[in-house]
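Entry 12.
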Amino acid sequence: AGIAELVAEAPDPALLDPRTRGAARLGRLLGGAPLRAARRAEVALQGRIGAFLRSYDVILTPTTAAP
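Predicted 3D structure (tokens):
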């Protein structure tokens, strides 16, 4: 299930975080054919990213958006 379906099943969606509700709205708007196309492309992208990351032992990323 996508986020739109999960939010629809919530006992009270109004209590969810605004970002979660926004993501669910996008999920409803971008479902169907665009979502299926993105999921098909995801498989190829996962392979490319995996091939790139195989050459690294450690990936350092920031843990906060701002200092």
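Annotation: The chain has a mean pLDDT of 87. Residues 3-50 form one domain.
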